[in-house]
Amino acid sequence: MSNTSAQENKMVINADQGTQTISKHIYGQFSEHLGHCIYGGIWVGENSSIPNTRGIRNDVVEALKRINIPNLRWPGGCFADEYHWMDGIGPRENRPKMVNTHWGSVVEDNSFGTHEFLDLCEQLNCEPYICGNVGSGTVEEMSKWVEYITFDGESPMAKLRQQNGREKPWKVKFWGVGNENWGCGGNMKADYYADLYLRFSTYCRNYGENKLFKIAGGPNVDDYNWTETLMQKAGNRMNGVSLHYYVVPNDWKDKGSATQFDENEYYRTIGKAYFMQELVEKHSAVMDKYDPQKKIALMPDEWGAWYNVEPGTNPGFLFQQNTMRDAIIAGVTLNIFNQHCDRVKMSNIAQMVNVLQAMILTDNEKMVLTPTYWVFDLYKVHQEATMLPMILSSNKCENNGKVMDAVNSSASIDADGKMHITLVNIDLSNEQIVSCDIKGHRVSKVSGQILTSPQVNDHNTFDKPNTVKPSDFKGVKMDKQNLSVKLPPKSVVMLELE
User: Fold this and answer.
1) Whose CA, among 132, 169, 283, 474, lies 20 to 30 Å from 215?
2) Overall average pLDDT of the 432-449 stretch
3) Edge-to-edge strands, sheet with 390-393
4) What average pLDDT does this structure show over 325-347?
5) Which entry of 116, 302, 384, 496 is annotated as an active-site residue?
């Protein structure tokens, strides 16, 4: 149970002491060939009655552009290590079909491939993040993919790209060398993968001005030995290392419902979201031993909540609803990443459309924005801003012996001198009053937005798309450099200070 009184939480923000930039890439997205993420969610084909640009849904693109998505990871996920990129180029009618053995055993017709993905990224004005096939692929295959996409010169791959309609190369910086190689990406040991990473990364070349940012397949949750081994053996040859962690309320056999849960399950779920703080700190501590200057990025490129699929849907499609609880998970997690932006330089929520903790749900021509989408909309103000150090003394929520901070927060100041504070009240029952002292920055005006809902399992549907949506926040008062903020139960708030 949570505490029973709304005692004051104290916060001090040192607005003149910020030295670290919150990378925009912390707000990245993930799209896998899984369920209706790609097919139906993003790609409908040029002949669809759904408005599209070269086969890509206009409504989804416009919604994602609103939240300034900085990068998009593709084609997986587990699918990446069975994907052979040459099956997805050339005339679509000639592309071979395959069975997607990981996700529902449906036919993958490869109609959405490299050209289509990079077109999507150009429409979104975001950077591509391509995950290469290490599990079932070859060094030659990945090397040629890099060449096909990025080489501006005379070569078989450059000529093939030109034959397929793209004269000039693309710029693609972010490359993942495999995915979950401890599991679906090959069930490898850390030593073996580290050696394999060195081999693959050697043959992924820089062409012209396109400098690759090479991302090693990192640990599963709290496998600190994997991180240690990778840093020790390959740290001098990588730019980033991934981290995968999913919030699962119960266990992997019966994860729990996305919409039907009681108070105990809610707090258990939020407690697991807070575990990201420990993971980031402990993996960072291992990395610090080998990289004290923090040149190598920690990149949680799969994170989010994972529940049982919605009743009556394909269990291999991982389609789940998205409630106010998910908004709180997203708010807590993004605040943690912001606070650790000296090491966390990129993250990718799983996934962007119709899968797991999605931004967007679609049903043929219909589209709905989820509560998680609105958190990303509120938090976009942090992108490329300077993280501001803070001291937060929070009340506690306790559930079955698990004690958590009731209030979670991060703050930044942007290039125009505007300060932004994002706050989450995880308490289901009690208002939390935050007394905030701003040091080193003069504030003359404050405004804000809030995301909350009467019930924590409230969610948006195609019939009721605006059940959970931000509104103007009136619960803040300013007295000189002190703010008094009244956070309603189960809420996410963004304050803007000028």
Assistant:
1) 169
2) 94
3) 390-393, 8-14, 432-439, 482-487, 476-479
4) 98
5) 302
Among candidates 253, 269, 255, which has minimal Cα distance to 324?
A: 269
- Could you say which DSSP state residue 467 is in? S
The C-alpha atoms of residue 380 and residue 66 are separated, in whole angstroms, by: 9
Residue 379 is which amino acid? Y
The DSSP H or E segment spanning 175 is strand 174-177
Angle between helices 114-124 and 139-150 (to 10 degrees): 50
By the 8 A CB rule, do 391 and 438 touch? no
pLDDT 10s digits, 285-309:
999 999 999 999 999 999 999 999 9
395: left (phi over 0), alpha (psi -120 to 50) or beta: beta
- Strand-pair category, 407-413 with 419-425: antiparallel
pLDDT single digits (tens) 182-226: 999 999 999 999 999 999 999 999 999 999 999 999 999 999 999
Considering the candidates 180, 265, 310, 384, report the single residue annotated as catalytic: 180
Q: Are 451 and 374 in contact (CB under 8 A)?
A: yes
**342 φ, ψ to 5°?**
-70, -25
The pLDDT of residue 399? 85
Whole-angstrom distance, CA of residue 187 vs CA of residue 185: 6
DSSP string, 220-255: BTT-HHHHHHHHHHHGGG-SEEEEEEEE-SS-SSS-
Residue 235, C-beta contacts closer than 8 angstroms, at least 6 positions apart: 287, 290, 291, 296
pTM: 0.96
| Residue 391 backbone dihedrals phi, psi, to 5 degrees | -120, 120
Give, as one character, the DSSP assignment of residue 388.
P
Beta bridge partners of 353: 360
| Residue 361 tokens, joined | 């749900």
Residue 384 zone, left/alpha/beta (φ > 0; ψ -120 to 50; rest): left
CA max distance for the chain = 71
Sign of CA dihedral 285, 290, 295, 297: negative
In whole angstroms, how far apart are CA 309 and each of 8, 455, 479?
A: 39, 21, 48
Q: Which two tokens stand for residue 491?
A: 């809420």
**d(C-alpha 104, C-alpha 6), whole Å:** 47
At CA 34, angle to CA 32 and CA 39, rounded to 5?
90
The CA R_g of the chain, rounded to the nearest whole Å, is: 22
CA distance 338 to 80: 28
Encoded tokens for 484: 């008094």
CA pseudo-torsion sign 197, 286, 384, 56:
positive
